[in-house]
Amino acid sequence: MHTLPSLVTPRGSRRLPLAEPTAERLALGLLANGAGRNVHFEAALAGDPALAVWTLARAYAAGEDALRSIAELASWLANQPASFFTGGQTPEPAAAEDLRRRSSTLSGRSLAAAALAEQFARDGAADAQPSRFLALVHGAAEWVAIDGEAPDASALFPPWLHSTLEELRRPAEHQSPEVACAARALRAVAAQDEDTPTKLGEAWARQGPWGASFNELVERLRVLAQLQHDFAGALETAKLEALKNLAYGAGHEINNPLANISARAQTMLAEEQDPERRRMLGAINAQAFRAHEMIADMMLFARPPAPQPEPADLVPLLAGVADELAPQAEEQGSEIRADLPQGPLVVAIDATQIAVAVRSLCVNALEALVTGGTVQIELLPPAKPHEAVRIAVRDDGPGIAAEVRPHVFDPFYSGREAGRGLGLGLSKCWRIVTGHGGRIDVESGPGQGAVFTITLPPGNTR
Questions:
Q1: Is 416 a residue whose pLDDT tops 60?
Q2: Residue 58 contacts by C-beta under 8 Å, 6 or more apart in sequence?
Q3: Residue 225: inside a domain, yes or no?
Q4: Mind giving me the DSSP string for 250-277?
Q5: Whole-number Å distance between alpha carbons of 43 and 4
Q6: What is the pLDDT of the chain when averaged over all its residues?
Q7: Residue 237 lies in a domain
């Protein structure tokens, strides 16, 4: 019998068994996408108490302490990369057989109790899923001791499980209906003959090709994911290098003629008296400056200056962005407002760069609205000290089509058919935010507006 990756405990690592049916379902889940992955993982968890206990412990170690059902565990597990499953081992034949024998008995009893708990809950109009789940994982402490000395289980599992297991040992009148059904099922399994649990355990512990192949599959998927990541990184680097060369070539070859055009237009404008010609010369000068700014944006995106972080209060910074853009919003019949906390929120940032990033998001939102509508800047303080700070810019415009959304941060990607002139504004914003070690996310759908959220890294909040 093979094992799952180790659980790290205060008394050393512990290895739980990887059953053959579980290995097959996990493999199919790793090869599936979207909802298909959830389906396979949920089936694996429902049929394997060892996997349920292992996942519960791994999730708790990752900070997830509120997963109380097979469906919630499956959803969490489905979001983990293939590398999450690396580290399983194949014990020596004698040790593997001993592990198979002991885990077969424990799994058979847990699976029999889980089936009875679900039946009792349905008969009693209680919620069947919590009853089944509790019966499935009630032996958590035994599972983590399956290959050696029992560790301190209190450090491995969420507090709710310990309190629920305590409730399991109370008299029925002091138990919730779901816990009472699980307790009744456990008593029934203990009182009946071993025929049903033994058959369930033997089916769970049967041998086959999937257990031996699972670790190899996981390793190949991990290598493939790493190759895809490396390729994407190399492609992004190549794109930025090409854009940098274009920007600096354009800066040298185009800025000089633009400066000459602008200077000539300004000279002629100073001497011109005809109103129509003055309007045309002003337009020439303005367009020359616009082209110059586009080249400057390209250069900023290709080689942005390193942030110079200093303590800055985000509240007045964001209020200032809203005030600056208020006339532009008013001119098109829109409204821009800032929803900010009362007190200061001081973070270590390059205030100038972050203001440019937020302004780019707001201008993009105003362009999406065209006329009317609202743009709102929100500052979401961290729930706890040293957690991430989030700045959200939302609008109630036409939204962003699904085919456009993956490209919103690409330089000069044209999204005007979706109501947004993207240009370099969002690309510049992305470069600034990632330069601060943060990230920017977008949520949108056609006709649903858009929300761009800047997440600044934790550790610099005051």
A1: no
A2: 7, 84
A3: no
A4: HHHHHHHHHHHHHHHHHHHHHH---HHH
A5: 17
A6: 85
A7: yes
